[in-house]
């Protein structure tokens, strides 16, 4: 199975979980393996985050293939992949660059209209992430960054923001609604994961176009600078504020780094800035990709405490900035 097809399989985790079990309390699910979360007062212990799941009761976890394997008793990776192709109707030979082969039941992807996106460019006073950006950079710089990246405000949760994935042709591929704390800039993860796709919110979850890098439109518009790639949208915006020598983009998740997402940047100098803990994974993945470097910045400078805290690129840049400013 190609990396691209595997990525599509991994992204089916939320759909698969919804099909095999039921919701429990507080953003958790009833564990389809050990049944935790079914009791009267028991809150669930089975959690899905991005492309991973974990049950805190029975200790099992992994990606969608691991779950499929557990439920259907398929131990080998090959058997799991074969079953996933069948179950999710995915063509495993799909390669980057080739048009993805879709089954007849998969509807055409729908791009988000510019009007929908533009309607979100307001109410920054009710947008926790924007309020925090103002605290970090001051109003003028914060607004400049918000406009450059197309930061939107979402009504889905009070204080939520939306990060739009705008591609090299200025098509809006996806929108990701997230909730941050306006004081600390940290993610709010209670009661649930507090991340929602705009397609899903619009009732079009099956019609997501392929993802693109967050900030790709900025990279496409300026070929004079190398492109930095980080994991989170927040790190990209912080990077753009502090290190303007690069155009900063984000994959939107550590597992979302793949060759096809970097394809629109072919011929450019690309520097990956992995978060602590993702260095080996990103280095291994990108080893054979031409023009792609991996920055050892965090890996080299991290202390034991940083590692324990899981420092990310944004944390690091903020710390550097505020320690030199004082
Ligand atoms: Zn369990």
What does this structure look like?
With 326 residues, the protein is α/β, with parallel strands linked by helices. The protein folds into three domains: 3-88, Zinc finger, CHC2-typedomain (DNA Primase, Chain A, Alpha-Beta Complex), CATH 3.90.580; 114-207, no CATH class; 216-325, Dna Topoisomerase Vi A Subunit, Chain: A, domain 2, CATH 3.40.1360. It contains 15 helices and eleven strands. The chain has helices at 3-10, 13-20, 64-72, 77-88, 114-119, 128-137, 139-149, 198-201, 216-221, 233-242, 259-262, 279-286, 297-301, 304-309, 313-325; strands spanning 46-49, 52-55, 61-62, 151-153, 161-166, 172-178, 195-197, 227-230, 247-250, 270-272, 292-294. The strands form three sheets. The chain has a four-stranded antiparallel sheet. It has a four-stranded parallel sheet with strand order 9-8-10-11. A three-stranded antiparallel sheet has the order 1-2-3, with helices on one face. Strand 8 (227-230), helix 10 and strand 9 (247-250) form a beta-alpha-beta unit. The N and C termini lie far apart (52 Å). The site of zinc ion (ZN) has 9 residues, from loops. Zinc ion (ZN) is lined by residues 31, 33-34, 36, 46, 55, 57-58, 60.
